[in-house]
Amino acid sequence: MTAWLSFLVVVLCSWSLRDFVVEACTCVPIHPQDAFCNSDIVIRAKVVGKKLMKDGPFGTMRYTVKQMKMYRGFQIMPHVQYIYTEASESLCGVKLEVNKYQYLITGRVYEGKVYTGLCNWYEKWDRLTLSQRKGLNHRYHLGCSCKIRPCYYLPCFATSKNECIWTDMLSNFGHSGYQAKHYACIQRVEGYCSWYRGWAPPDKTIINATDP
Fold it and tell me: 25 labelled as ligand-binding?
């Protein structure tokens, strides 16, 4: 199996696609903090060019970006020039507009290239909430050792001290929910994790508050 096919298999499995050829991309909801912590690279960038590459079974789109700021990945790749994604949206390829917006882009590094897709967290920068921007700068780092557990049906309870219960799926889906927009799950005293909204410095005396 070639290196490309090996990478593609990993991507398809991580994105929960049941078949190699699919009608639409299917992604598991993920809180922005988890998307941040699970990514090799997190940057703010503007797309300044694009080119369809012939590598891979269906082609790959290569976006040329102007990196504004890096939030994660300094040790791996301090400066990102290109972002790669599947050319087909059915395979979770991302469509980014050239010379129009600044984007928040998360991705993984494979053989020296940054790959992203619909199941990664990407968004126009001006659509991010103030809490999400603060999370990128500092707060998400504080919670990478915490576990955000999705709640699909009530009741939901934390099963360990490092869990925060994510309830956006009860009324929303994915990044659009209130917790995703306004809360970070950070570690407090004695290893306990709890939701933190961020209007004031974290109160280290509060522990295990799973309901924001």
Answer: yes
